[in-house]
Task: structure prediction
Amino acid sequence: MENDDDDGDGTNFSIARAVSAGTYYVEVKGLHSGVTGSYTLHARFVSGGGGGGSSRPDLIVQSPSVSDNTLTTGQSFTLRATVRNSGAGRSASTTLRYYRSSNSSISTSDTQVGTDSVSGLSASGTSAESISLTAPSSSGTYYYGACVASVSGESNANNNCSTGMRVTVSSSTPPPPPTGSLGACSVGMVVRPNQSCRISGGEFRNIGSGCFVYTPFGSGTVCTGRFNLNGFRGTRVGNDYRIDAVP
Ligand SMILES: [Ca+2]
Ligand SMILES: [Ca+2]
Result:
């Protein structure tokens, strides 16, 4: 890799070489064959230097993930990513910026949603980062990722963003309407929006827009013209429900 006989002081040699991680050998030979003698070898290692081509840092952002990719508006979730120094030289401390994007490509022109500090990393060093975020207030499809700010001497500053993690955001379910209980359900009873009546095992509740929930069958919503739930029958009239039979 390098050959030298007199760059050092006096009759010494001197070699300075930027190297990547690995094992290297220094061989010492006398200038004239057949001449022997003792020698002392001094070696000094400087990590990071940043000057040589192969000892430069190269930060990348790997393994982005979200704690949940189906969210409701305003829901909290966690975005994680790992910053890795894939170069041969030590990287200085820097900043990780988190972004929300409308497409799967994450760049620094996307909407920034938070930052994190990243400490200096040795070659091949990694730093796991995370941030707690809140889903947007509008439903839709979004992508989340992060970009690490480039550091001094970085060999490639065009690979500093992660891929985007897809997240689907839907409207959060509105809170249940206030109770207007009519007492026990009975034949002929008309249950208007936001009213309910008691039935064995739970209640029948008109939640408006022609839909009801019937808790003995779980929390699902039913929107129908006529229903017959194990003998509990009714008919939709506009947005009201008339009870036709109670088992
Ligand atoms: Ca980089
Ligand atoms: Ca984008």
